[in-house]
Amino acid sequence: MNQTDRCDHPKGVGERVFLTADWQHLAMLNYEVDARLLLPFVPPGTELDCWREKTYMSLVGFRFLNTRIFGLASIPMHSNFDEVNLRFYVRRNEGNEVRRGVVFIREIVPRLAIAFVARTFYNENYVCMPMAHEIRASEDNRLQVEYRWRCGQDWSGIRVETNGDCTLPSEGSAEQFITEHYWGYAAQPNGGCVEYRVAHPSWKVWQVRNAVFKGATEQLYGKELAAVVQGQPASAFLAEGSAVSVMRGRRL
Length: 252
Hints:
By secondary structure, the chain is mainly beta.
């Protein structure tokens, strides 16, 4: 991927910014998955995007900070929060441009208003659950980052511990593939899908020496995808994050 593929450029003609925020400390557990399990979730007009002929799904936890919608301050107590999502990767051709994007299977947030806004504007699969996080730095400058959520009476969570320095992913790496999808796609109830652009610079990442998921997932993701998430991830890393702009979507 070259620099012109990246979507940290100014907004395009006719685009309107829907949301701005800072995304920080993105813990990413990445699973190789049978493409057939994801096909029912692929929005019309897109196709699965693969890395080295392998299909990936990621469980991602991160901090959502300084959130503003249409440039206005968010509802009190709703500007800083955690999110955990299960996502996979698609692509769509627009003329000579290949748009590489993300589809969310399920997104967890701790506030009902946040879930309501996302479902209303994009038909994204948000649910509201109690959540918590912990971010600690050790004496040797390693970071321990954990995100937890409660489904019913049971808590689930992901935790990573970094190893080494934070650097930009190498060209053509799995880390670059995972972090540099700059479009979102959401299937709509009455057919078609909504496409929206997500603008941010390339993210630096830490490799991790320990990545753990614990908890129940079948109620959230269904039996087959839950079995994938309960298994060993193919890779894991922590992305530094940045300021992010999410553009208004358009119907395809």
